[in-house]
Amino acid sequence: MTDPILETQDLTVRFGGHVAVDAVSCGFQAGELTAIVGPNGAGKTTYFNLISGQIPATAGKVFLRGRDISGQSVSLRTRAGIGRAFQLTNLFPDLTVLENVRLVVQSRSGQGFNLWSMASGHAEMVEAAEAILVRVRLLEQRHQVVSELSHGNQRKLEVALLIALDPAVYMFDEPTAGMSVDEAPVVLDLIAELKAQRDRTILLVEHKMDVIRTLADRIIVLHNGALAADGAPAEVMASDVVQEAYMGKELEDV
Description:
alpha/beta, Rossmann fold, 6-stranded mixed beta sheet, 10 helices
């Protein structure tokens, strides 16, 4: 097996006397979609926060392509190749959908977040942004102000911004939460497309077992902040202890 693109070693965070993430060590390969599951309060989102730099770790390290990024800020980790959907939510809430996406395209090209420089001479960036909006079914809303979007369309815009960022590691924290039955498949199809490229690492926090069964190459289970299981979906989901203690009725319902 090749070296992991992303790795955590004994990653830990304490809030007072509470250990929210307890010495979690995991490596994540390129081309692999890993679902992170567990009961509410298990530490899933906190683990994401530690990887993306939203909160500092009490102990342990995060490595990207073998380089220690534990001391880096959110922005530096993003530039290094870690993309998390919610980090980009409402990046510019008073600008339009198209302006939001094309600013990320421009930043990715190395020209920075300068809205006015895009007013002319950047047709190729507008075209690239519109192509992404076609993928997420938001082209018709391209001139709508972001703050006026429905919740479902805001979630789709998160994915659009993440695609524009083109990170090595995609992190999705319950990407379909709050979306309607009609809206959710668009986001899930986009995640499936990213997975099909087989050159990106994808981490997915999700409660819906049917989604996990469809998309995941691997499942890790967190419980009380600790790593409780790690393996192929069929193996992990068939485990009695995981079903009873960590999935509960959600898995029984599937």
